[in-house]
Structures are given as structure tokens and as C-alpha cells.
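Q: Predict the bound structure with nicotinamide-adenine-dinucleotide.
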Amino acid sequence: MQDIVRVDLSERSYDIVIGPGAIKQAGARIAPLIGRRPVIIVTDDTVAPLHLPSLEAALESAGVRRNGPAIILPAGEKTKSFAHLEALLDEMLGRGIERSTVLIALGGGVVGDLVGFAAAISLRGLDFIQIPTTLLAQVDSSVGGKTGINTRQGKNLVGSFHQPRLVLADTSALATLPRRHVLAGYAEVVKYGLIDDLDFFEWLEQHGTAVCAGDTEALVRAVTVSCAAKAAIVGQDERESGRRALLNFGHTFGHALEAAVGYDNRLLHGEAVALGMGMAFDLSARLGLCTGQEAIRVRRHFEAIGLPTKLGQVEGVEWDTVELLGHMAKDKKVQDGKITFVLARGIGRAFTARDIDSAEVAAVLDAAV
Ligand SMILES: NC(=O)c1ccc[n+]([C@@H]2O[C@H](COP(=O)([O-])OP(=O)(O)OC[C@H]3O[C@@H](n4cnc5c(N)ncnc54)[C@H](O)[C@@H]3O)[C@@H](O)[C@H]2O)c1
Ligand SMILES: O=C(O)C(=O)C[C@@H](O)[C@H](O)[C@H](O)COP(=O)(O)O
Ligand SMILES: [Zn+2]
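A: Predicted complex:
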């Protein structure tokens, strides 16, 4: 059972291969694409013992050339930093990379975002391949070419648009993923329903538990629908000059929450996005754009799945509304000093809005604790 979703971007187009066994078949997919060009695999120290051996075996059996052993980074969000970017570039340049070198990112969104950025800026641009091993990375971060790192000022503030040449989303690799990370990735799956696909949201209300339990059919469908939704938006607006901002639903709030906890393990990106999407619905309801019932329905689904819906569920954090508003003011969607919000007229009816009264935003943050 494998699906292929095409990201249509003229000369930068690529396939996303989705389904169980995609890592075992990686050599057969990659060799025809890159020929004799050397690859460097980059992964993290949690994924390496679990999935690196099967990728290495697949590449070897297809005769793919390697430039040295895999580079193994520490797992976790703090790796998306200048320090780890520098160490990675140092190692790559030390190996004498050439412009023909292809990077392979094997791991979650942290490895994918960092390696994609390293590919974008090394020798002014290397090709790279995404092999996402978290649900979040399979449905979101490996697709669309947003790459980058966090800085002390905020989330993803240094980066570039650099599309991968191929994405291999092996759903069987998710069998080893801890449940907390499955749920965090699931938040980005729900996002696609909330943006513009009520039918998909209703399907998730019925089948979300099966998706999160790793049922192959449900999982492949959820990943495929998510990737198709993202591919359609990215194909229309690669560099976020318009419609792509919808993919940021829940993120204006969510990124501020992540910054407030200092990107540590108390709050994962997907958990922050789930909380942020709840707040985006609360703000929409406060502004009379949708009914309070819609906001309740979204929260009820997150609760049923096991995602957080209240800031108080994040342990060990003192939330401060003024501080959160300060983080939100650094959002990349700010224009002329005004934050662009993604709001909703209902489930599946998201849109972007400016000139939102900050007192209303503060009221939503106060109520979310
Ligand atoms: N570029 C984009 O468009 C985009 C989209 C969404 C999120 N992101 C970014 O992605 C990052 C979050 O990604 P993530 O949730 O994948 O986090 P992550 O990369 O930190 O992975 C989560 C954890 O799971 C481990 N792991 C990965 N695969 C595993 C597997 N198969 N089995 C067991 N453990 C495994 C990792 O080692 C890590 O500890 C954030 O930095 C976020 O900003 C980027
Ligand atoms: O691909 C996009 O566009 C997204 O916004 C997807 C988000 O889920 C993702 O977290 C992204 O990294 C956020 O982008 P940013 O530009 O707000 O940093
Ligand atoms: Zn996200």
C-alpha cells in the first residue's frame, strides 16, 4: 500500500512516496534520481539505532555512493540552532563536499529543517532528500521547502525556502515513535481539516484514534490527505505571499508558547499548535466570526485524542500574557508592525486577518490558562 503525491513546482517539482516499507525501498527510489553522486546521511541519536541500518542497507544494495558515515546529531528542538548548524557545516565541509553532494535528512522535523537549511546554504545550494520518521515530519515539515533554525529572538527566524528532491514517508517507521510525538504530529493533521476540509475533519473525528494507534490504512490515508493538502497550497504559493499563510493556522499563538518555554521538552511543537488552534478558534468566536460551538467541537476532538487544550496542562510554566504578546509581535507574518492572524469562520473555513484588537488577543490568552 503506497501512495505518491506530487508537489508541482515546475523545475522544483518532486514526489512524496507514502506507505510502509519506503525506507527499505529507498535505494531503488534514490539511485535513479541521483546516479553516481555521493550522499551524506544526517540523522539524530534517537533515530540512528532504530532506522539508520535499514536505510544504509537499502542504499548499499542499490549501489548509492556515500561520502563518509552518517552524521548523528543530538535529538530534540534545541538542535535547530546556530551552534548545531555550524557543527554540521563544519563536518560537511571537512569531508570535502562538492556541489554534486546530496544530503539525506533521516528523522523528524528538527533534522529535516536543519539539514534542509544546511543544504540551502552549503556551496550556495545542495540537493537534499527528506526521509521523515515522525508523523509531524511526514504530514508537514518534510514537504514544502521551509527550512531553518530557531534563534534567541524566536522560532524559525533564520532559514530559507529550499525544496527537497524527494520525500520518502515510511509509515512503518512510526511504529517506534513515542505516543506523545504521535499526538503532536496528529495536531498538524487536524490542521488541514480545520483550514479548508470539513469532510477530512469529520473523518478524523471517526478515525483519529485509529490513525494515532498506527492502523496502517488509516495512517496512510491521513498522511496522504495531509500531504496532498499541503502540496496543493505550496504549489499555488511557494514563498508564502498569500494562501500559504493558512498553513500557519494556530502557529502565531503556538510559536509564542514555544518561545516562552525556551523550546524545551515541556511543550512540543505539535502540542503548541494544538493549543494555538484552540486559541485561534476562541479568538474567532470572540470576534463573532464563528460560533462558540465550533470552538468547543475542535477542543473536544483534541481532548478525545489526548492533546492538551489548556495552558495549565503544560507542567512547570508560569504563563504571562504580556510576554506572549511580545513573542507574537516577532511572528514572520507581521507587516507594518501588525500581526496577521489566521482565523476561522467555522471548521474548514480559515482565512487571514489583520487589524485584530490586541485586547481581544490578550483576553483569549488570559482565558486559555
Ligand atoms: N518546515 C516545516 O514546514 C515545518 C512544519 C512543521 C513543523 N516544523 C518543525 O518541525 C519540528 C518538530 O518536528 P518533530 O515533531 O518531528 O520533532 P523532532 O524532530 O524533535 O522529533 C521528535 C522526537 O522523536 C524522535 N524520533 C523521530 N523519529 C522517530 C521514530 N521513528 N521512532 C522513535 N523516535 C523518533 C526524535 O529523535 C525526537 O526525539 C519543529 O522544529 C517545528 O518547528 C517544520
Ligand atoms: O509550511 C508552512 O508554510 C507552515 O507554516 C507549516 C507549519 O506547520 C510549520 O510549523 C512551519 O515551520 C511554520 O513556519 P513559520 O514560517 O511560521 O516559521
Ligand atoms: Zn507547524
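A: Residues 140, 144, 146, 155-156, 188, 240, 244, 247-248, 251, 332 surround LNCXM5UN (ligand 2) (CB under 6 Å).
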